[in-house]
Give the backbone structure.
Amino acid sequence: MKYGTIKKASFLSRPNRFIARVELDGREEIVHVKNTGRCRELLLENAEVYLEESANPDRKTKYDLIAVKKAERLINMDSSAPNKVVEEWLRAGGFCDNVSLVKPESKYGSSRFDFYVEAGEQKIFMEVKGVTLEENNVVMFPDAPSERAVKHIRELQEAVKHGYEAAVIFVIQMKGADYFTPNKKMHPEFANALVQAQKAGVKILAYDCLVSPDEIKLSSPVPVVL
């Protein structure tokens, strides 16, 4: 996916989950943060950040914070990006050939999954999780306890029981990680749910991304260590 007009700025502080103070072109600017997660290891004072200019001239905040430089690595932290890059990948046949249907936000029973895909006889439900947490070249999810994520994994198991294929894909919003693993220290219940889901037939996938200031694209499989 491509972004519009991009500006480089310097991070100052984050008053709350939704906004940040940055220095842009020598002035202080309040910008919207497109990720409500903690991201404490990313948004450090004076970190190099990248902003997308809003197309809406009447919006209160003129820019969205979409990426940050951590050491030499550029990390996309736009929480809407993972679903968009996965949709592009699905439609291009990245997951399976002969795709005839890609339906975002698809309801199944009392559940709502990120994607429902049909390809020949295959009927697949898929959940997408964005990953921005990296330590010592290992990427992890989640960065805070997430009961919602556990619920999604268990719901995928139910879909498998009823004859569907199911997968969860962790979109690593950076390049060059050694492997992905669930953040067991932060949320052991989620890590255990992944193990049970894999045993039940849910595919556990992780892919990294090519990231530039104005683009993010799903790239290569990354080893998953449960």
User: Anything to note?
Assistant: Residues 97 and 119 are 7 Å apart (CA to CA). DSSP finds three helices and 15 strands in the chain. The helical segments are 81-91, 147-161, 188-199.
